[in-house]
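We read letters as residues; the fold follows as tokens. Both lines appear below.
***
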Amino acid sequence: MKNKSISLAFAAALALTSAVVPAAAAPLKNIVLVHGAWVDASGWKPVYDILTKEGFNVTMVQEPETSFGADVTAARRVIDLQNGPVLLVGHSYGGSVITEAGVDPQVVGLVYVAAHAPDVGEDEGALGKKMPSVLARTPGAVEKTADGFTYLNPADFPKLFAPDLPRPQAEFTARSQVLAAADVFTTPLTAAAWKTKPSWGVVAGNDQIINPDLERWYYTRAKSHTTEIPGASHSVYVSHPKQVAAVIADAARSFGDAVSAAK
């Protein structure tokens, strides 16, 4: 009986020890990339290639840009398709989209790449007027169709949106724009995920679409881990994919312990 009691006690102690020792940390695997206005998800290809080679499961959202609500819904649809926790990444206007969609419980963190990050009740159009960009000070740069959709004048696109890309690539992007409904920029947010979830921010030092000072202000307010890429244009995710991918990968790996504990 004495030996049996010792064996039972040892088994109980072993079980208790196993329960409190955490599993080996593994990085978060699911990354969802959200593009900005006037472009589509194909611009993420260089970042996608790097992240997938590092073992991440990367998915892009194709926003219709017909309304802010439709774009948020498109992001949520892709989030729902992921198996496990998600790191949500947004470029430019996509920052507003991830700020709203990021309250989804499956999303554990946010990465803003030369992006807007409004608060509840704010919209990026009004915030942009407080710290005007080169774009805002360029007459005729933003055109509008008869039915209320906006686009960047193709003649201005290379020098404002993508001055650090090869000219043929910038011109092709200018001619393949996704026209965005004007009201996507003026729809107030009803949620702000950065208030409750960790975030990272990339400042494009030579951004002419969003004032870099506004990007810094957003990220300071959100207490984001901030990286600045000097000389980078608004197309930083295309022109500097290694640096942008490194920020995203570091953010994802920071969730290793939390993700393991949640399993």
About this structure: Confidence is low (pLDDT under 50) at residues 1-25, 257-263.
